[in-house]
Design brief:
Layout (H helix, E strand, L loop, with lengths): L8 E6 L4 H11 L8 E5 L5 H11 L4 E6 L3 H14 L2 E4 L2 H11 L9 H21 L14 E5 L5 H9 L5 E5 L18 E5 L2 H15 L10 H18 L2 E4 L5 H14 L2
Length: about 270
C-alpha cells in the first residue's frame, strides 16, 4: 500500500461536471494498488487561465491531469501546458472524438456538457413516470400543485394512457376521474386553470369502450356502467365541473393517444 505522500494526485479537469473523467480514472486506478490515488476534480473549466492555474498547482507533485474538454482552444492550452510543465496528461475524449470524425466525416459539435444534458433528460423522464404512477386516478391530490398538467374526465377517457405517454416525454402529470357521486377534491381549485385539461368523448363511442372493458373483465355487460343515460349524466356532470374550473376541454373521440398527447404538449408550450 502506498503512503499518502506517495500516492499520485489525479486532477480531473472538465468543462462540464467531470463525472465521465472520474469514472474512467477510477476504473484505471483500480488496476494499480486498488485505486489508491488522490482525486481532485476541477469542473466547469471555461478559460485558459483556469487551465494554467491547475498546472501551476500540480507542478512538483506526483500528478496526472485527466481531462474531458471539447472546446478546441482549451484542448490546445492543455496540450501546451503539458509540454511546458512536463506533467502527464490523459485526453479521455480526444482519441474517440477523432475516430468518430474520421468514420463519420463530420466534426463534433464542441458543446460542453452534452452527455449531462442527455442524462438530465433521462432522469426527468424517470421522475415524471414515477410522478404519474403516484398520482394516477386521483391518488394523492396534494400532488396537483406540483403537476405541470392535470387531466380530468370520466372513466375510460384515456386519462391513464395519456398520463403515461406524457410522462415519457418528461411531463409531470396527474389525473383525476370525475364521478357524479364523488366530490371533487379542493386541491383541484388551487391550481391555475391553464394547467388543467378536461377530456370528453362521444357517448356512443364511450359505451362501446366500456362494454369491451367489462367483457375483458368477464363482467355483466348490462351494468349501469354502460347505460347510455348514465353515460350522458356523467358527461354532463364532467362538463359542468370543467366549466367551473375554466379549463381547456379536449374531445378524444376517434383520436389516438399519441395525437391527443402531442396536442396537449403544444397547449403547454404555446397556450390555448
Amino acid at each position: 500500500m502506498l503512503e499518502a505522500s506517495e500516492r499520485p494526485i489525479v486532477y480531473i479537469v472538465s468543462d462540464s461536471i467531470g463525472d465521465t473523467a472520474e469514472f474512467v480514472v477510477k476504473a484505471v486506478a483500480s488496476q494499480f494498488d486498488s485505486g489508491n490515488v488522490d482525486l481532485r476534480r476541477v469542473p466547469f473549466v471555461e478559460n485558459k487561465e483556469q487551465i494554467k492555474e491547475i498546472f501551476r498547482e500540480a507542478a512538483g507533485c506526483n500528478a496526472i491531469i485527466a481531462y474531458t474538454l471539447v472546446v478546441p482552444e482549451l484542448r490546445k492550452t492543455m496540450e501546451q501546458e503539458s509540454l511546458n510543465y512536463s506533467i502527464c496528461t490523459a485526453d479521455i475524449l480526444g482519441s474517440l472524438m477523432g475516430a468518430f470524425s474520421r468514420v463519420t466525416c463530420r466534426q463534433p459539435n464542441f458543446e460542453a456538457g452534452s452527455l449531462r444534458q442527455l442524462d438530465e433528460a433521462y432522469f426527468r423522464r424517470v421522475a415524471a413516470v414515477e410522478f404519474a404512477v403516484k398520482h394516477d386516478d386521483g391518488k394523492d391530490p396534494r400532488g396537483f400543485t406540483r403537476a405541470e398538467v392535470v387531466l380530468v374526465g370520466i372513466s375510460r377517457t384515456s386519462k391513464t394512457p395519456l398520463s403515461m405517454y406524457l410522462a415519457h416525454q418528461g411531463v409531470m402529470v396527474a389525473n383525476l376521474p370525475l364521478v357524479p357521486e364523488v366530490e371533487v377534491p379542493e386541491e383541484l381549485y388551487w391550481i391555475p386553470s391553464e394547467k388543467i385539461i378536461g377530456l370528453v368523448i362521444n357517448s356512443e363511442q364511450l359505451r362501446e369502450i366500456r362494454k369491451a372493458r367489462l367483457k375483458a373483465l368477464g363482467l355483466d355487460e348490462d351494468a349501469d356502467y354502460v347505460n347510455v343515460e348514465r353515460i350522458e349524466e356523467e358527461l354532463t356532470y364532467a362538463r359542468r365541473i370543467m366549466k367551473k374550473l375554466g379549463c381547456t376541454i379536449y374531445d378524444v373521440s376517434d383520436k389516438a393517444v399519441e395525437e391527443v398527447a402531442n396536442n396537449i404538449i403544444q397547449l403547454l408550450k404555446g397556450g390555448r
